[in-house]
Design a protein that fits this description.
Layout (H helix, E strand, L loop, with lengths): L6 H12 L5 E7 L2 E6 L11 E2 L2 E7 L9
Parallel strand pairs: 2-4
Antiparallel strand pairs: 1-2, 3-4
């Protein structure tokens, strides 16, 4: 599949498409793939495995905790 836009622009477009979802945490870019960070259960609603020609990888975020000294 030919990529028509750069990965940063593709990530921005995916962010616009999913940022209103309750499970959404953040979007990242790494190793020529788009990373979708979420909390709770892995989203199953309408997010393709490929977005604008780039693989989409889901990463679960846990609750942040303070490190003990």
């Amino acid at each position: 599949m030919e990529r028509k836009i750069d990965i940063k622009r593709a990530a921005e477009q995916l962010h616009q498409a999913v940022s209103h979802k309750q499970w959404f945490t953040a979007i990242g870019v790494g190793n020529n793939q788009i990373l979708v960070y979420f909390h709770g259960k892995k989203p199953r609603e309408g997010i393709p495995n490929i977005w604008k020609g780039y693989p989409v990888v889901f990463k679960k975020m846990s609750t942040p905790r303070l490190l003990s000294a």
